[in-house]
Amino acid sequence: MKIRQRLNLYIAGVVVLQILTILGLPLYTKNITVESICKTSQLIYVLAALLESVAIYLLVKLSATISSSIVFLQKSTKKLADGNVTAPLERRATPRGENEITELIEDLEKMRLALLEERDRRNKFIMGMSHDLRTPIAVIKGYAEAIDDGVMDNREEIRDSVKLIREKTEQLELMINTLINFVRLKGSDWTNILKKQPIRPALEYFGKDCKIRGEVAGKKIELHLNVKPTTKVVFDHELLQRLMGNLFSNALRYTPKGGTISLIADEDKDKIVMTIKDTGIGIDKKDIKFIFDIFYRGSNSRQDEGFGIGLSIVKNIIDIHHWKIDVASEKNVGTSFTITVPKKDSAE
């Protein structure tokens, strides 16, 4: 048995020497004996066993760390799954600093903040909807009860009350339709209906309507359409009319009589730039970054009727087309909304 072991050690030693020779390491071949080869082999076996032990220890340590990290991550994700988005997620300190797990926790924390923001937006949506629907309903109910109870027995009063009820009913219907359109924009894949077509005819069609509405409201309307009739971009005619119509309605509402509203469209080799500019009351700087939020109403529009979702619809239509919108405003000077439309098929 000893002879076999010594033979194995000798063979192993020879193999080691061959490996060292291949690696180009210096060898001193004088006085090499079977004993020295065996001792070298034994040393190598000891070193190999030591390295194996260290590797097993590190593997066990790493496994324990990964396991505890997975448990920690599981607790964090369960917290979010249970709807607990109010409290910040616990940050886990590691002796080696940042790693993949801590980065995942950071991403989960960003997701928590997004969920919290979405919940707040949804609550504002419900509160705003309830408030704006309640107002015309209360008027309709009040006048209907007054007529039914005989409080109004004068024919002229009854006629005026019925007229007011009809107006509030139409207002309510408009609000509901606006809300339905908003939900449709948020929940549908409109990219399937977008098509490449000339945009100037759509702008001319919109400009004619603006002229008529502006004259009725006593405001000056300027049209500057510097777009070639043959220029085509990807868009939907109905959505474009709704987008421009909402912006124009805002300009019409907040521009005093005698003021000016301009519709400008320019093009270069890469893009078309459309601007609706007014000489109205302007928007407070503190309000500008929120104006596209659902139900947000700036300090200048608190008393206006409506849902306050017109600009949210504008932003949704912009996103559907993959366009860009910018706002510039100065108090008591005016506001301009600028839409950048790339000529390439960015919405496809």
Describe this structure in words.
The chain is of the alpha+beta class and 348 residues long. It has 3 domains: 2-81; 116-187, Signal transduction histidine kinase, dimerisation/phosphotransfer (DHp) domain (Helix Hairpins), CATH 1.10.287; 190-342, Heat Shock Protein 90 (2-Layer Sandwich). The protein is built from 8 helices and 7 strands, in the order ααααβαββαββααββ. The chain has helices spanning 2-22, 34-81, 100-148, 155-187, 200-217, 237-254, 285-288, 310-321, and strands spanning 195-198, 220-226, 232-235, 260-267, 271-278, 324-330, 334-342. Strand 6 (324-330) and strand 7 (334-342) form a beta hairpin. Helix 1 (2-22) packs across helix 2, helix 2 (34-81) packs parallel to helix 3 (100-148) and helix 6 runs antiparallel to helix 8 (310-321).
Short key terms for the protein model shown above:
348 residues; alpha+beta; Helix Hairpins; Heat Shock Protein 90; two-stranded antiparallel sheet; 7 strands
Q: How would the blueprint of this fold be written?
A:
Blueprint lengths: L1 H21 L11 H48 L18 H49 L6 H33 L7 E4 L1 H18 L2 E7 L5 E4 L1 H18 L5 E8 L3 E8 L6 H4 L21 H12 L2 E7 L3 E9 L6
Structural class: alpha+beta
Mean pLDDT: 78
What Rg, in angstroms, do the CA atoms define?
37 Å
- Report helical residue fraction: 55-70%
Largest sheet: 5 strands, mixed
Going by CATH, the homologous superfamily of the largest domain would be Histidine kinase-like ATPase, C-terminal domain
Large-scale geometry: elongated
| Annotated CATH architecture of the largest domain | 2-Layer Sandwich
CATH topology name of the largest domain, in short, is Heat Shock Protein 90
Low-confidence stretches: none
Beginning-to-end CA distance, first to last residue:
79 Å
